[in-house]
Amino acid sequence: MAAAEPGALGILAGSGALPGRLIEACAKAGRPVFVLAFTGAADPAVVDRVPHAWIRLGQAGTGLKMLRDRGVRELVMAGGVQRPSPWTLRPDWRTLKFFAALGWRALGDDGLLRAVIHALEAEGFAVTGAESMLRQDLAPEGLLGAVAPDPAAAADIALGLAAAREHGTRDKGQAVVVASGTVVDRESADGTDALLTRCRGRAAGGVLVKTSKPGQERRADLPAIGPDTVAAAAAAGLKGIVVEAGATLLIDRAAIAAAADRTGVFVLGARVPQSPAEAGRATAKAEAPLIYLIAGEPSGDALGANLMRALRYRTQGAVRFAGIGGEQMAAEGLASLFPLDDLAVMGVAEVLPRARAILKRVREAVADIRARNPSAVVTIDSSGFNWRVAQRLRRAGETVPLIHYVAPMVWAWRAGRARRLARWYDHLMALLPFEPPYFEKIGLSCSYVGHPVVEMGADKGDRAGFRRRHEIPPLARVVAILPGSRGGEVGRLLPILGATLALLAKRFPDLMVVVAATANVEARVKEAVAAWDVDTVVVGAAEKYDAFAASDAALAASGTVALELTVARVPTVVTYRVNPLTHALLRRIVKVRYANLVNLILDRPAVPELLQADATPEKLAAAIERLLEDQAARAAQISAGQEALQALGYGQVSPGLRAADEVLARLRR
After folding, report:
1. Under a CB-based contact definition with an 8 Å cutoff, are residues 322 and 332 in contact?
2. pLDDT of residue 559
3. Which of 13, 28, 269, 499 could disulfide-link to 617, CB 3.0 to 4.6 Å?
4. What does the DSSP assignment read for 420-468?
């Protein structure tokens, strides 16, 4: 087993020529690869040329660990794998858990591949399609060689295109063979080559037609042909091959054309006419419920992205999205009405200078919602902005279901806010188990769904891979810095954090610092960090959880990220500073003793909080030094964090799926 380079593309390799074609394309582009090859499927002659490892199909846990150990973040599925029986699979615990939740025969081939991709994405991998790297290899419309179909073949081609598409709706195969106006045979799980072998002597003068399945998961199972397919068609006595233009991979286009000319077999790329059933499905998709989501800050963006994934999973993709969000929701397909940074403001003194601009954005959001007429509106946290949107929608007479995600902390603030919420919203989804009673008693429907941060993968970071990629010595002390996601808080905290690290560097000469920055403040963070006199790495969202795993302690702005660090088992000091005017107002209305959610749940200071006047470099450095040096203090905080997480449903039913079910329930009603 050879080592892979950092940032390698992971190729899950099955049978056929596609894995080799991908390896060649990556080599030409200078892209390193790591191949996870399935025993009994992948070709050793192809795989042995590059960094790789062999696994059985049932070794999901082993495979995931291998990928993480080699720093793989992006995956492509290439080649065929026969669906095994439960007896030959010999599943490890991770594979067994997957099939126990799914049901062994609950899905067809494409449905199973969709479920596999969803599971890989839930593990933190980005799954891409082979065609994204092989676009030049997609079949064009027209002939690939000099041989053309005769007029007698036209009827067989038309019948074959319709029959192949109809066969694909059953999720059993992609190809059919047609001869003399009759469908001779259809592709089954054993593939196209087996289909052609079965047709020898039965389909003389016929045509092989291969198309994608309607609604096919293109990232996992795109149709493909190679020169061997042409040779097999000729051996079966066929006169030609027709593939779907723009949706079929050609494994060595030049070789296919040469084989076609040599054997006298035509190869044609054709557009597939839409059947009435497909037209109906396309209409149904266009009429799928439109969910309008609004996130006002990066923490809400993370919740929104998780909810989008869960809704797509629950509806099998039959859902549409519009609204306002950040980079994570954009990655799930949301085209934000305007940048999230326009709303990421917190505090009375901070909001006032931008009040006019924010109210303009409120009007734009309301107008967009009314124009789109969604099936439901889900606002996520950020009550200052979202509640104004809800209020204006109701005043305008809109009856669209309004759902708010993340309950306001009425037990920490004023209960009057709950009554205001009840006037506008139909339902509230709470993150904490003790919150629903506060809202139900004033007549607002409320459900506890759990905190999604417990399932977002913060506990799955790759420590060794991150340290290797960023050349961090094995024994170096690493401190993670999380300066916040709003421009104002970052501006106030970065100078203090820089001074804190300067003090720590004197105490720990081997100190390394990792700063995780959200996209909206990344430029500002990098500018400030450039002046720090300590070895520092700045990373984005893609490497955040790996950075957590590589860190020995963390210094974080109070917020959701502190809970993520708890999930990652990183001992943390929480800090924060707001404008003095905002702080003076907060002191009058806040009724709780703690800012960090772990401390609030446990009702004790398990995580050090150094806020406002206590947020000094000297105090912060001393608190971090204790977590680096005192093993008992580290163990106590990690243990307390696990206690708090259990109260939030850690390791239980998916909070994201619970939230999706609540949203869909409101739609059904």
Report:
1. no
2. 76
3. 499
4. HHHHH-SEEEESSTTSHHHHHTTT--EEE---GGGGSSGGG--HHHHHH
Q: What average pLDDT score do residues 313-325 get?
A: 88
Q: Which amino acid is at 136?
A: Q
Take residue 321 and report the two structure tokens written for it. 């999205």
Tally the domains of the chain. 4
Residue 351 has pLDDT above 70, yes or no: no
Average model confidence (pLDDT) across the chain: 82
pLDDT, position 533: 86
How far apart are the C-alpha atoms of 31 and 46, rounded to whole Å? 17
Rounded to whole angstroms, the Cα distance separating 546 from 542 reads 8
CATH number reported for the structural domain that contains residue 181 in this entry: 3.40.140.80
CB within 8 Å of 166: residues ≥ 6 apart: 275, 277
Tokens encoding 442: 């004033």
Tell whether 2 is covered by a domain: no
d(CA 562, CA 565): 5
Mean pLDDT in residue range 3-12? 68
Q: pLDDT value at position 278?
A: 52
The CATH number given to whatever domain includes residue 56 is: 3.40.50.20
Q: How many CB atoms lie within 10 A of CB 463?
A: 16
- My answer on whether 260 and 356 are in the same domain is no
Q: Give the mean model confidence (pLDDT) for residues 256-274.
A: 90
Could you report the per-residue pLDDT of 607-631, keeping only the tens digit for each?
998 887 788 999 999 999 999 999 9
Return the higher-pLDDT residue of 474 and 503.
Answer: 503
Tokens of 359: 């109210």
Please check whether residue 202 is in contact with residue 178, taking contact to mean a CB–CB distance below 8 angstroms.
no
Instruction: Give me the domain span that covers residue 507.
Output: 460-647
Cβ(75)–Cβ(128) below 8 Å: yes
Asked if 432 and 410 count as a contact pair (C-beta separation under 8 A), the reply is no
